[in-house]
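can u pls check wat happens w/ zinc ion
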Amino acid sequence: MNIRRAIVGWVMVLSITLFLGFPLGSLASHRWGCWKYADYYINWYNGGTGDYYNIYNEEAKTDSNAWSPYTDIFLNPVSAAGTSDHANAYNGFYGATGWLGLAEIRGYSGCTVFNGRARLNQSYLDNGSYTRTNKKHVACQEVGHLFGLQHNRNETNTCMNDTILSAPQPNLHDQQLINSIY
Ligand SMILES: [Zn+2]
C-alpha cells in the first residue's frame, strides 16, 4: 500500500491504497501538514452502517485504546453530520477507487479543520479478502488522519502504518503526538 496524497479542489485527501508503488521510507514527523481541529473537543458523527458502525465506534470511542479516550481528544457523539467542528465517518461501495479508506479535510481555515470526513470502501473491504481486524485498522487510520496524523512506517503496532492492516489501534507515539498537538 502506498501513500496517495491528492489535492482535489479544496479537498485534502489521504488514503490507504491497495497497490505497493512507493519505496518504504520514514516520514519526518508523522504529522499531516499542520491540520488540527480547533481544540480537543470534536463533534463525532458515526455515519457507519451495519458492522461498520460498530467498527468506527470501537476505534473512536469504546476500545480501551480508541482515539478517545486513549488520547486527549474527546469525541462528542452527534446524531447528524456537520461542517463546523466535525469528524464525519462513513462506509459505502465506492467502486474501484484504489483506496480501502480515505480521509479528507473538506472545510478549514488556515490549519484549522472544520469538516473532516473518513470513508471506508466496501467495494474492496467486503470482497472476502479482509478480516474484521483489517477493517478496524483502516477505520482507525482514516480517523487518525483527520486529527492531523500522517502515516508512520517506523512502527508496526499502530494503525497509522499504511503498509500493514494488523494493528487496529493508535500506539504510544500517536498518543504523544496527538497530545502535543491538542
Ligand atoms: Zn492513510
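The pocket of zinc ion is lined by residues 14-16, 141, 145, 151, 162 (CB under 6 Å).
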